[in-house]
Amino acid sequence: MPYFNTGKIFLVPSLDLEVKERIKMEKFLTLLDNSGVGGIIDKYIKNNTSLGGRPGYNYYRLFATILYGFAFDRYTLRELEDACRFDLRYIYLMEQETPRYTKFCEFINKVIVPNEEEIFSLINLEIQKVTNIEFEDAFIDGTKYEANANKYKFVWKPIKHHKNISIKIGSIIKEHNLIANYNDEVMIKSSTVAYAITHLKEKENDFNTVAFYRLNKTLTSLLNKVMEYEEKEEICGPNRKSYYKTDHDATAMALKADYYSGLGSNMHAAYNVQLLVIMGYIFSYHVSQERSDINVFIDVIERFARLYSYFPKRICADAGYGSLDNYRYLDKRNIENYVKHQSWEGNKSGRNPDCYRLNDDDTITCLNGFIGYEVKLENRHPRKKEAVFYRVDGCGSCLWMPFCKKYMRIQNEDFKIFEVVKDLERYKYQAQENLCSPKGIEIRVNRSIQVEGVFGITKQNYGYTRTRRRGIEKISTEIMLNSLGLNIAKLFRYFETGKLNSFWKAPNNLEPEIFKKPSRKRLVKKGNKINKAMLDNCYNKVH
User: Fold this and answer.
1) What is the pLDDT of residues 296-348, one digit of tens each?
2) DSSP state, 261?
3) Residue 178: what are its φ and ψ, rounded to 5°?
4) Which one, of 487, 69, 467, 488, lies nearest residue 287 by Cα?
């Protein structure tokens, strides 16, 4: 059943669209019809004009107009309202109806927000069908978009203040025996303070009037503070340490734009946005409050699997995603691992290589070729999860020693003991071998073109660096509409040229990449410099 391709009647034929634009519109509406997204919108249509009343706006046309605005003009909803009055394309789409921006906003909140994943997947599957894109090489990257919030109305999670006030209240409760057998609470609850005030009133006769008034006033004031802290902690949740008053879901983050003006100190309200890109098209997205990319890698892949019911064949990402949990996830899902590990650049350039390599027999080989073995130490536990201790002897005569023992307080021992997470090392070698192969070189080049190119288009070409809505749910829908709009715009370039975007292909005679051999002289010099700085720092602290 066609939902979008219905008859259009113009009162002024001279203002009708050009043939080229009409064909473009017909292709756009046919794409929406073929995708099956009309069936979702159909559930929300309840108007029955046969029973009387005023007919509502055509929901199919509203959706097509909104998506067209996101795809080709990057309009805001207010600009979309104006376009429906003066732009022939939007007049054509809305059949001369002129909804206000509030109607577009109401439609997005009512229809698109609850069904964003299904709408996104249906239209993307139709795009995949038209373009014959294969879900093989996927690229993941993230960025931070500034939130639509007042950056000066900023609240830190008051953990320290809550702990301090808990000590103060606890001492008052114990001093006046307001709660029997009271045990100190690290973060005192408002219910506990209220319980103490109730008992204080029961013991009113044990105090003179002035003392009772002052104590009751103090506890009431402290109760209000505890309730304020609890409210702030509830808004932050367990995994955040900050929020903004004008958008509670926004988190304080440092943006790349502030790299040269105080990265880490110049904070902005922002959201972390992850995209999964295949052949230049966005096929999955994820919006979170995480400051780091490493914890949201799995989420964006899981959404991809939820949308399309299978996984990409290969996934490439930068070193910001290289963790044991992420590598294990790829292994469990049988996805080829092309994710850089966090020491990739140091190993590749030879400027900061790993000090050892794990062998197949679970021994290790250090930079000088000495063999190390796993050891167990009494009264000492590894700091890293799943790590074990290894020991290498012969450091006293090793020329690499200043580099290998950098940051260590004791330099003159003839051995070195350190922690190794064996599974992580194996996954690192697997990723390194894949990335250095001809296919890996091709994927690395294309990652910079495809997923970095998508962020370049949205931020530089379209000027989209700040979100327009508030709340993580609505931001997610906004990112979905922007991603879908970008995909449709690329699809229409495909209609015009008949070709998909071309990306670099590795030649058949391309050799695997070999890392540079580390320079012992340079690394020893670097190690000596670090060790000297540490000694000077310790000397200054003592004196």
Assistant:
1) 999 999 999 999 999 999 999 999 999 999 999 999 999 999 999 999 999 99
2) T
3) -80, -25
4) 467
